[in-house]
Specification:
The protein has five helices and nine strands, in the order βαβαβββαβαβαββ. The protein has about 160 residues and is of the alpha/beta class. It has one domain: Rossmann fold, CATH 3.40.50.2300. Strands 2-1-3-6-7 form a five-stranded parallel beta sheet, sandwiched between helices. Strands 4-5 form a two-stranded antiparallel ribbon. Helix 2 packs parallel to helix 3.
Length: about 160
């Protein structure tokens, strides 16, 4: 098991090539308990039978989008994995798409083509540096606001030098 507690990741991607890249990247990062799903039904089955540390999925999937399964996970049907960190891999990196992903309950987004280091940074951000989980009638998922850490007075930029 990794020191940070990220020990099991479900990869949901219908593309064999993408799945192999994700698998190899995660193995190199010492995540050995990997689950694989190629369809939404397979992913939902995997989510029913096991509690996962994280779910990594693709935006474009057969029979729907990755955002469809995010809504299923965050819904009441899958209480076991309702709060699981979700990392979305996508080539759709325009502002509207990112906002849609955020509003669906995705924790982090990784732009394609995937770079291993960036994928792990996003997984760690989602799993270790978690944002509070919000459960409201109109939204369930990680807090959509990213809060900045308080900067000590001596380390703040001097605005008068502009």
């Amino acid at each position: 098991m990794r020191q940070d507690g990220i020990d099991s990741i479900l990869i949901f991607d219908s593309c064999k090539h993408s799945t192999k890249i994700l698998r190899d990247t995660l193995w190199m990062a010492d995540v050995n308990d990997l689950g694989f799903a190629r369809t939404i039904d397979e992913a939902l089955d995997q989510l029913e039978i096991k509690t996962w540390s994280c779910v990594v999925l693709d935006w474009d999937e057969r029979g729907g989008t990755g955002l469809d399964i995010v809504k299923d996970i965050r819904g009441t049907k899958f209480m076991r994995n309702r709060k699981v960190p979700i990392v979305l891999c996508t080539a759709n990196t325009d502002r509207t798409s990112i906002e849609r992903a955020r509003d669906s309950g995705v924790n982090e987004v990784v732009a394609k083509p995937i770079v291993g280091g960036e994928l792990m940074k996003r997984i760690i951000a989602a799993c270790v540096r978690k944002r509070p989980f919000v459960e409201e009638p109109v939204y369930t998922g990680p807090d959509r606001r990213r809060r900045e850490a308080e900067i000590p007075a001596g380390e703040r930029r001097d605005k008068s030098k502009k």
